[in-house]
């Protein structure tokens, strides 16, 4: 399993420092959220240059307000700017956002995502001819320089979304998904769909709030106002129920270094291919958590090199 960092975008200069620091520390990837603040792909294109190895992903760009051709155009440009290291994570968002904020129907999210992915995959090759029930994309993009096509990931949670993700995308980026759900639903469903479609084994990227601390009760209470937003969102509520959690803050990984390391190990055992930690807590706790992620990344890279030598 590889290791990454998952982060909101608040200050762009801090994201630049995060990216360069992560590469220097041997961390495999950084995943940036897309909300109502800075545009993630623009930020990645602006500050993700000058790196040689670090994968940079969006986790995730909502598809409803962005036509597939427009998103492909932006993603191809960003990917070219950063030397082909972009992972394009997309997702359907939530009816509480799509309908009141954007004035669009969320009546058929799986159908919309299936058609959107078909259109997006075509547009990323710079030539698309797709006409579906709810999505149409016809045209040619003319982005010079033959930019590589980024891997497309989907924030798939339920069985139907996992099935179409395995069929049409490179993998999934999860949030609010625990190791039990990963082992019983996520990994089996997406892997079976990818196999059936003749695709390579899918990536399964887990993002989770993590805090290395000697005061877990205080740390978990501190994250509750942030994670509480997810308590009643239907797709996330279903994931919490699968884990037997009443509150989203129970999904956070909190404890001393040994406890956190063991809990992350449960995700690896469940089939995650990348674990990306969202650092939270006091500055000292965030530093301790970042140090642990760096240690895990170094150990993973060393194990991989040893395996390659053998």
Automatic annotation (TrEMBL):
Keywords of the record: Oxidoreductase
One Gene Ontology molecular-function label: oxidoreductase activity, acting on paired donors, with incorporation or reduction of molecular oxygen
Pfam families per record: Bac_luciferase
Domain Luciferase-like: 9-273
Naturally occurring in which organism (per UniProt): Micromonospora craniellae
UniProt KW Nucleus keyword: no
Enzyme Commission number: 1.-.-.-
NCBIfam families: F420_MSMEG_4879
Name the record gives this protein: TIGR03564 family F420-dependent LLM class oxidoreductase
């Amino acid at each position: 399993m590889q290791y990454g960092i998952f982060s909101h975008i608040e200050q762009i200069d801090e994201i630049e420092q995060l990216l360069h620091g992560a590469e220097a520390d041997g961390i495999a990837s950084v995943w940036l959220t897309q909300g109502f603040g800075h545009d993630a792909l623009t930020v990645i294109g602006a500050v993700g240059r000058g790196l040689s190895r670090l994968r940079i992903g969006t986790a995730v760009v909502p598809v409803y307000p962005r036509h597939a051709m427009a998103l492909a155009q932006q993603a191809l440009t960003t990917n070219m700017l950063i030397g082909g290291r972009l992972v394009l994570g997309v997702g359907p968002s939530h009816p509480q956002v799509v309908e009141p904020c954007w004035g669009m129907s969320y009546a058929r999210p799986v159908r919309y995502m299936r058609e959107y992915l078909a259109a997006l995959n075509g547009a990323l090759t710079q030539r698309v001819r797709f006409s579906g029930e709810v999505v149409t994309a016809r045209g040619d993009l003319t982005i010079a320089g033959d930019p590589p096509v980024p891997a497309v990931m989907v924030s798939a949670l339920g069985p139907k979304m996992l099935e179409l993700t395995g069929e049409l995308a490179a993998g999934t980026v999860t949030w609010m998904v625990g190791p039990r759900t990963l082992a019983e639903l996520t990994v089996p469903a997406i892997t079976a769909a990818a196999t059936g479609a003749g695709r390579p084994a899918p990536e399964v990227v887990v993002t989770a709030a993590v805090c290395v601390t000697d005061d877990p009760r205080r740390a978990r209470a501190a994250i509750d106002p942030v994670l509480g937003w997810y308590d009643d969102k239907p797709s996330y509520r279903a994931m919490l129920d699968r884990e037997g959690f009443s509150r989203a803050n129970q999904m956070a990984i909190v404890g001393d270094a040994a406890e956190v390391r063991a809990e992350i190990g449960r995700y690896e055992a469940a089939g995650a291919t990348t674990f990306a930690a969202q650092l939270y807590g006091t500055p000292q706790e965030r530093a301790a958590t970042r140090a642990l992620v760096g240690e895990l990344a170094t150990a993973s890279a060393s194990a991989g090199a040893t395996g390659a030598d053998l």
